[in-house]
């Protein structure tokens, strides 16, 4: 078993997330991936998809679930940009798609 970590509206903070990862055995993290453009304005409060991958790695989370995207148009990026960019970042950083889940309506997933 392990802990669940919910990251609400948050910019990326590698020092904090690495510290949390060292102190806790995190099984599942819910990490926001949307509402990140323009960066000059959103960076302190909303991480982008690549920063979400860094957060997953820093937390040493066994699984992560993407959150905070594709419900409302909240920022300047295209409506469906966040999951597309997350997939690219996951590929770039060798994160298995079964370890960082992008939920879809009607889709279910199991954790071992």
UniProtKB/TrEMBL annotation:
SUPFAM superfamilies: Metallo-hydrolase/oxidoreductase (SSF56281)
Pfam families named in the record: Lactamase_B_2 (PF12706)
Biological process (GO), any one: N-acylphosphatidylethanolamine metabolic process
Keywords, comma-separated and alphabetical: Hydrolase
Protein name: Hydrolase
GO cellular component: cytoplasm
GO MF, any single term: N-acylphosphatidylethanolamine-specific phospholipase D activity
Domain Metallo-beta-lactamase as annotated: residue spans: 4-69
UniProt keyword annotation of Hydrolase present: yes
Source organism per UniProt: Rickettsia asembonensis
Entry-linked InterPro entries: Metallo-B-lactamas, RibonucZ/Hydroxyglut_hydro
């Amino acid at each position: 078993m392990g802990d669940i970590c919910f990251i609400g509206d948050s910019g990326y903070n590698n020092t904090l997330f690495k510290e949390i990862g060292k102190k806790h055995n995190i099984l599942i993290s819910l990490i926001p991936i949307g509402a990140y453009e323009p960066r000059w304005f959103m960076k302190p409060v909303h991480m982008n998809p690549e920063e979400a991958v860094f957060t997953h790695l820093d937390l040493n989370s066994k699984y992560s679930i993407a959150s905070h995207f594709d419900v409302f148009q909240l920022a300047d990026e295209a409506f469906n940009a966040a999951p597309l960019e997350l997939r690219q970042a996951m590929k770039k950083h060798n994160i298995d798609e079964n370890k960082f889940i992008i939920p879809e309506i009607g889709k279910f997933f199991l954790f071992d």
